[in-house]
Amino acid sequence: MRIAFWSVTRGAGEVAKKISKKIGGDVYTLKKFQTENTIQIDDFSEELEKNFNLYDGHIFIMATGIVIRKIAPLIKSKDIDPAVLVVDEGENFVISLISGHIGGANELAYKVAQSYSLTPIITTSSDITGKIAIDTLAQKLNCEMESLTKAKEITSLIVDNKNVDILLPKNVKIGESENSAGVVVVSNKKNIDIMRLYPKNLIVGIGCKRGTSKEELVKGLDTVMKKHNLAYESIKKIATVDIKANEIGIIELAKDLGRNLVIITREDIKKVEDDFIGSEFVKNQIGVGCVSEPCALLASNGNGNFLEQKYVYNGITISIYEEKFGDE
């Protein structure tokens, strides 16, 4: 988790430095204080706006009122905003301000409190009543939520002490069995609130000829995903070879899907390419005989299996590797 500390007084800067030594992070202080071992800035508001979305979490050593006014124009939604915490300059409290669940602010607040002997202030209803929120459950299971609105609705039922079941087939245990193809809910209720969680455990390896458009890549990927009845929400990473690192179509595909593009070197591919059926033509062109399969494998945690070994479409090769759900 990449963390930024922010301070606007000399004393706050020293507090930020102390905490950062315990948990790590970049410390921003005003240049006029000439605080050593920090990133010294001229304009707090300008630097915060520039860096707000570049960090996973922000810890402000200042009054909550200042923080709220400064971040108000920058925040968008709880599913994408970074964690925001506030620590008082007197070194008494650490407050989880926004993105408590998905952004990890609550967990980070506890971490700061434990490492620096502060009192954590957590105000989310599910946490203070000892219940688990759906977005927290999704985070713990490394799943993507079907709907943030549904997550709020189901969590409100939990907080209101209503019975909410998490249904899995009897033969499925997280981390020990394959994903279920379906779930049957038996109930005499006409309306039931149900929410889907998508495990992020699919690694997509891609190879293509130079200049392949994003649209063509989408057509190929759509075909493979539909063939295996797979959800795009479960794609964890897109992977390709280093010679394709600047291929616009692949870059745009990863960007549109909101997934990291992992670049695998040809030197690493050479270590495993004997396990796959390669092409002499491809090897003569780029130095390795196969791309999509080893890229998918090497970008994964290695604990799983291929759902699609190699699908070929109009100069494109696509492989899909499924990690065992629950293993990281």
Provide a quick synopsis of the model.
Helices cover 34% and strands 23% of the residues. By secondary structure, it is α/β, with parallel strands linked by helices.
Q: What's the N-to-C terminus distance?
A: 16 Å
**Uncertain parts:** 169-177
H/E element order: EHEEHEHEEHEHHEHEEHEHEHHHEE
Number of strand segments: 14
Shape: globular
Spatial order of the strands forming the largest sheet: 3-2-1-4-5-6-7
Q: Which percent range describes the beta-strand content?
A: 15-25%
Note the total helix count.
12
Main β sheet profile: 7 strands, mixed
Helix content: 25-40%
Mean pLDDT: 88
Q: Which structural class do the helices and strands define?
A: alpha/beta
Radius of gyration: 24 Å
Fold blueprint:
Layout: E1 3-6, H1 10-23, E2 26-30, E3 39-41, H2 44-51, E4 57-61, H3 64-71, E5 83-87, E6 93-98, H4 105-116, E7 119-121, H5 125-128, H6 134-140, E8 143-145, H7 148-159, E9 197-199, E10 202-208, H8 214-227, E11 235-241, H9 248-257, E12 260-264, H10 266-272, H11 280-286, H12 292-299, E13 304-313, E14 316-323
Parallel strand pairs: 1-2, 1-4, 2-3, 4-5, 6-7, 10-11, 11-12
Antiparallel strand pairs: 5-6, 8-9, 10-14, 13-14
Helix pairs in contact: 1-4, 8-9
Describe what this molecule looks like in 3D.
- The protein has 328 residues and is α/β, with parallel strands linked by helices.
- Helices cover 34% and strands 23% of the residues.
- The chain contains twelve helices and 14 strands.
- It has helices at 10-23, 44-51, 64-71, 105-116, 125-128, 134-140, 148-159, 214-227, 248-257, 266-272, 280-286, 292-299; strands at 3-6, 26-30, 39-41, 57-61, 83-87, 93-98, 119-121, 143-145, 197-199, 202-208, 235-241, 260-264, 304-313, 316-323.
- The strands form three sheets. A seven-stranded mixed β-sheet has the order 3-2-1-4-5-6-7, with helices on both faces.
- The relative contact order is 0.09.
- Mean pLDDT is 88; it is low at 169-177.
